[in-house]
Amino acid sequence: MEKFTIYTGTTVPLMNDNIDTDQILPKQFLKLIDKTLEKDRALTPFSYVASELPIHKNISIGNNRSIQLKGFIDRVDEHNGLIRIVDYKTGRERLDFKSVTEAVFLHK
Fold first, then answer.
1. Where does 23-104 show beta strands of DSSP type E?
2. Which of 6, 89, 93, 100 is the 20 to 30 Å CA partner of 64?
């Protein structure tokens, strides 16, 4: 059996001349990166504020009832005194709904 070679540093050599880059970084992520960088470039300079910011909020809906909203904000930036919330859409979930009820009561 051949011994393992351990590499240290920021890059690792690829031992194959014919590499399928979609196996490393699928096309949908490359498109997402391009779109994000394009929008970021249009807003430069901006300041990075936070990423993966947890949110948790109880909202009263009347009659002594409330709903609980929980999630994460992908990224928060500041540009010219305004806050920008960035939501990366990497999933393949269906986001077109016929009604609010359909959007709220999703079944997996």
1. 47-62, 65-79, 82-86
2. 100
31-79: pLDDT as tens digits: 878 888 888 888 888 899 999 999 899 989 889 999 998 988 889 999 8
Cα dihedral 71→49→30→15 (10° resolution): -110
Question: How many CA atoms lie less than 13 Å away from 36 in the CB half-sphere?
Answer: 16
**107 falls in which pLDDT band (50, 70, 90)?**
very low
Q: Token digits for 46? A: 């901006």
Cα–Cα nearest to 72, from 52, 87, 89:
52
